[in-house]
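Collaboration report, partner site 2.

Our partner group contributed sequences for two proteins of shared interest, and the home lab folded both. The records are reproduced in the order in which they were received, starting with the first partner submission.
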Amino acid sequence: MKRLLFLFPFLVWANEDFISHYEYGEMLYSQPRGVSCAECHGESGEGKIIVEFRDIHGKKVLRGPDIRKESLASMINSVNSYHKIMPRYYLTDEEVRAIYDYLQEKNEEYLCKTDEGNTSASE
């Protein structure tokens, strides 16, 4: 009986996940299928210059878009659709939700400020 009481604390915590939902989203954002989202979308989803080049029309900039205000549905569609530049990742909806939730939590302060600005501008 004493042995069972010793194991009780382990049984209580056995139902917890190995990593949190936030950590899972962060991991997927960092390396979803070998190519980091941050390479083009920035560390927080703010968008980033991928490359600058010149052609016959002058200087050009290829930029990854800011995805901080994207909806979950839009992100699911983007990640699982064909694009000329962005690779197709074949992520499940749950994996995209983890990335979306990670970005929402990471950018909570930014999103609140922009929402406040939109609210006061429309009043």
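Second partner submission, folded after the first:
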Amino acid sequence: MRIYTDEIINAICLNMADRRGVKPTDVEVQLSWEEEYGYTAEVWVNGRSQYLLQANIMEALEQYFYSEYRLRVFRSDIMLGIDEEAEQFWAEARA
């Protein structure tokens, strides 16, 4: 199963909202990929910025795949990528 940028952002928003005790709509996310750090996300909650590393993104995706699709996947089962032509990120769960 493959999801794209919007759903990856939703996964991170839901995860951060749960951790911070806010509504998912109070969370903003900007995804990026850097040679040095890999996949990262800058997250804003109530005006405060925080950077998430790939491990944090994978945690959010694990929870999202289970809560939204009832797929029990682990980080080792999730692959992240970028479709440069479509200019979007993707995450694929191999269950």
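Feedback sent to the partner group on the second submission included the following. DSSP finds two helices and six strands in the chain. The chain has a mean pLDDT of 95.
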